[in-house]
Amino acid sequence: MRRTKPLAVVAGAALLTLAACGGSGDGGETNAGEREFDNASETIDKDPEAQGPAEDIEGATAGGTITVFLPGDPGPDDLDPTNGWSVTGNSIQQALTSRSLTQYKRDPESTTGEMILVPDLAVDLGQPNEDFTEWTFEIRDDATWEDGSPITAEEVAWGINRSMDSEQFPSGPGTEYSQQYFLGAGEYEGPYTDKNTDWEGVEFDNDASTVTIKMAKTFPDMDYWGAFMAMGPAPLGKESQPPAYGQNIKSNGPYKVDSFRPGDELVLVKNDQWNPESDPARHQYADKWVFKFNADGDQTDQIMLSDNTESQTALSTQLGSSSYTDGSEVLGDRLVQQSSQCTSFLYPDYESTDLNWRKAVAYAYPYEDAWQAGGEVPGVTRVPANSIMPPGMSGKSDYFVDGEQFTFDPEKAKELLAESDTPAEISMIFYEADPLAVATQKVITEGFEQAGFTVKATGVQESPYSTWTNPDDKLNKSLNLRGVNWCSDWPSGLTMVPPLTRTGATYNTGFFSESAMDDRMDEIPNMELEEQAEAWGQLDEDMSTEFFPIIPTAFRNDLYAFGSKIGNPTGDGSIGAPNYKDLFVMQ
Amino acid sequence: MSSAQTAGPETLGRMSDEPQGKDPSTKKAKSITGKSPMRIAMGRLMRDKIAVVCLATVVFFVLIAIFSGVLQRLFGVDTDTVLPSQFLDLDGIPRPEYGPPYGAFTMEHPFGIAPRTATDNLAYWLEGARNSLQIATLATVVATIVGITLGLLAGFLGGVVDKVISFITDFFLTLPFLLAALTIAPIVSERFRDNPNYVTIQVTQLVLVLAFFGWMGLARLIRGEVLSLREREFIQAARVLGMPTHRVLLRELMPNLAAPIVVSTSLMLPAFVSAEAGLAFLGIGITSRPSWGQTLTQATSFFNDYSLYLWQPLLGIVALVLALNLLGDAVRDALDPKTRR
Amino acid sequence: MFAYVVKRLLAGVLVLFLVSMSIFLLFWYGPNEPARVMCDTKTSNRCNAERLDRFTEELGYNNAWYAEYGDYVKGVFVGRDITVAAQTTRCDAPCFGLSYKNGKPVWEDMKDRLPATFSVAIGGATLYLLLGVPLGVAAARRRGTVQDKALVSSFLFLSSVPYYLFALLTWLFFSLKWEVPLIGDTGYVPLTESPTAWFGGLALAWICLGIFGCTQYTRYARGAMVEALSEDYIRTAKAKGLPTRTVVYRHGLRAALVPIVTIFGIDFGTLLAGTIFTERIFDIEGIGLWSLRAVMQRDLPIVSATALFSAVVLIMANLIVDLVYSILDPRVRLS
């Protein structure tokens, strides 16, 4: 999943800024202090039997308004479920407004926040055929829209059909999954672009309340993919016409949209038509949710630390590094560190660089320094990364490309550079509108220069992604070092490795291309289910060891600050967000 | 149309010495004495204690700006980027051994080091002063030239030219300065991002934006003065004698305009210093060089833990702007004994 | 009088026309790829050359600028339909185009922001007057005393400090450091939602604007009063035995009225046109902060709409001031 924190923070700063690596050297400073890095659970369990209503959270009370500050995070531009593919938007909508085939639930037994995959609109986690090329979901009959009308199988099928339309939803997750695995992938262009084709990839039976999805190739992860709101219903016909629908969605979760101002504010109020009996995981405790996008970081920190009446029922999705020490003291357990299932990368241009050059870059990147300049807390919000797959993903391999963790080591970089045929020149871009990104770039440049590189860093005014993902861009063609931040969509290497390294993948910003690797990526989903996790980990290791196409710089964690009257302050490990489903206001 | 540029809040300070709004007590009539008015004014200025203190302050900053490089070498500091992690605690605050806020001041970094980036504060402060004065001075020069030229032309030629220029003046006065600056900056940045002279272009852009929104007051003032002067005997005489227009303008008119120009200029400087820092504070000023306003924005995050970092640029701006403003007022008073306060 | 009004109105319209055209041209010729932002947003940064071309065409950047400008102006008065990405949106008058970010008519969002800016402006301007004029009068009556000198010099000092620093320090201490209850928590809450929260959220902003803005009113009020108090008619009035208060307010202040009304009109206009620093520092979601954000996000229709809005407000303020002025002081019309 793409990270959208970006406008200020990720796109610019973080992208190139963060990186991963523990200790840039002399002792002491790396230890994360009092806090241990929360490893997310190894695997996500599945419970196809779970039924609504969800059991009450201990001590939960109804009522009140929860305010969520999202510092430096512009949030989604629209709320269309089919278009949603960002941590922020999906975490909010999937928990509160928009249901889909399946969903996650925080394991009440577990203290480390393990998530369980449970049914949502489907009565179970779907019935695949033997080779996972056809999945049938029975849609429950007691779920309703916000206007009280029942959700039909046809509407679910229509929602799934929409996800095939890459032209209407160029940034939707369907581009990566529906358009890869569903029948007609690569040919059928979706219901809006390809009006005349009668697509057979998804079929429904309103009487039996079933939806059947046919695959182009074996797709064992359909139950996970079903937890995306893109795999949920959409009103038929004109009512869900994009892009208007994105500003005016019809909710079916416990809350509905009261008002939405992109980049600014989203207000949700209780949806009285939501039937708790129909939902195994969601709750409806608070009366109202107010999400404040693009909140000012410093002000939010101050509000959260002050424990005034406003902050008692508020939470912040990002505590700034300058408030980390104070925050640890003042907030205690209410400062929650959550693995965001994300890795930050530098992505060298594959064509124009060689292996030694790429390793030299990995040794020349001043990991901790870049984190600090970008306002991150080394060892807490950023930890050293060794692989493409983030911690907590089953099958993740603990290999080291060069025998040990890459750290900032200019001498080693110089040695490698001497053996490289690629000129010691780096050409990269950074997001100039964000002072933190500018400061970070300066530090990165300094690190590279100490290692003997010459650096040409160009400031851009828009998100660097708009340059990196545009193969036609003149500036992009001149770069030999790009970046990307990537978060897993579900705990499988399938959602990390191919989207970043498959030939032609959108976020393959280094244009890596090796047909042997592409073949292995195609093979793994055909393997026995139990072997797949290992296989992804092995592919991650083999690819990096042999080609080292992409340089992981950091595994990312978030720091959430919860107000003193927010009950059950926890995170959602499946997506890397506050656990919106289970929060309440203590009365 | 009246001036939109008053000294009220939300403007970036006084952009001109023009009487705010329509001050009925205009000071047109200049007393003409036998001695050089400039000399009298200087004497008066020197007797004004506040003016002397302000002058000293201004000179101090000018020296800092000019000798910024030398001073940095003297203190052994520089604005080079460093790798910060070895100097900072986890929350980005400098460790005690490198100076404030938790440690004592050190000789290596007399003003301490910056949070997050660990760069030297003194060096950034000195460069900030230089940057600030350089941009303000350049903008003042440009604005003064534009203002004088248009004011002279309008006042002296009169007729259609006067009408057109007056209209342009009013036109610029109705443009919201801040929004214009906000709008132009990113467009220019985008257009020239690949240009090797990007830094220069950014500075030029800022100077021009400041100047283009700062000349109107002076132009009006000059026009007014010229209107009253051109009917006076000595000008009439020069024209009758067949002196060419440019000579009349430069030789006869200009010396009589020295006072308003000096006053206007001396009040433009602080306005531009203030504007430069204000724009940088909003995040749209100079991004590629140290600037006080930039530091100010970054420092607000650390105010509780490391307030010194905020006070440095803040006191710099306040001291410089205050000294320049008060000096400007004193100059005006010295040149025009009739000004009441 | 009538001819004067017509003349001033025509000049105002002409200025408005030029301002709007300058803004339009700036955004037309300024950016390298004017359709880029819209394209990036609509495709979540996956804007390739082909998509960019499509957006460039749709947004009309392939047409002549004057034709598009004509459409724009027409939209402002009667509204228009705008088609982007095969989606037609009705943009009612006053139509300033569609936001690149959310695709909604700019005016729809703008009118949500206006109450915040108006609240700031009205409260701030009221405080200017309530503080400034009485202080000036008081100072004039105590002319030459220590209090008078202290007031004059401290106000001189204050007005020589950049406003945003004053506001920033106020925020840092009152909100951040001392966390003063009620007023420490700044921001805009609609008056209709909670009058106390509305008041508390804006109080610091008003105080800042009020204290900082009142200095020049004090100066004018004091100057005019000092002059007036020495005039013959005041002395006569005093000699007649009228109460000092009546003399001071009825007669003395009248002289100060003209300059004060003038600067007040302009100041108020400036505030209405957008209080960027105040809104940025005190986190008030008004026009100023909105336009600052739009600049950062390069949402050009919003930026041009706010610029145009400010210009309109300033021109109107100037016009009204001039008209009022010509009523108060008939000599103006003749000159």
Automatic annotation (TrEMBL), chain A:
Top-level taxonomic group: Bacteria
Keyword Metal-binding part of the UniProt annotation? no
For the region Disordered, give the residue spans. Answer: 20-58
Q: Where is the composition biased (Basic and acidic residues)?
A: 32-49
A matching Pfam family: SBP_bac_5
Keywords of the record = Signal
Task: List, alphabetically, the PROSITE patterns matched.
Answer: PROKAR_LIPOPROTEIN
Locate the Solute-binding protein family domain: which residues? 117-505
Query: Which residues, if any, are the signal sequence?
Result: 1-22
Q: Which PANTHER family match?
A: ABC TRANSPORTER SUBSTRATE-BINDING PROTEIN (PTHR30290:SF83), PERIPLASMIC BINDING COMPONENT OF ABC TRANSPORTER (PTHR30290)
Name of the featured protein: ABC transporter substrate-binding protein
User: What is this organism's lineage?
Assistant: Bacteria, Bacillati, Actinomycetota, Actinomycetes, Propionibacteriales
From TrEMBL, chain C:
Bilayer-crossing residues are 9-29, 116-138, 150-176, 196-215, 255-282, 302-328
Q: Does the keyword Cell membrane apply?
A: yes
Protein name as it appears in the record: ABC transporter permease
Q: Of which family is this protein a member?
A: Belongs to the binding-protein-dependent transport system permease family.
Superkingdom of the source species:
Bacteria
All residue ranges annotated as the ABC transmembrane type-1 domain in the record:
114-325
Q: Keyword Transmembrane helix, does the record have it?
A: yes
Give one Pfam family, short name only. Answer: BPD_transp_1_N
Please state where this protein is localized.
Cell membrane
Q: Which UniProt keywords apply?
A: Cell membrane, Membrane, Transmembrane, Transmembrane helix, Transport
InterPro entries per the UniProt record, alphabetical:
BPD_transp_1_N (IPR045621), MetI-like (IPR000515), MetI-like_sf (IPR035906)
What species does this protein belong to?
A: Nocardioides cremeus
Q: How does it sit in the membrane?
A: Multi-pass membrane protein
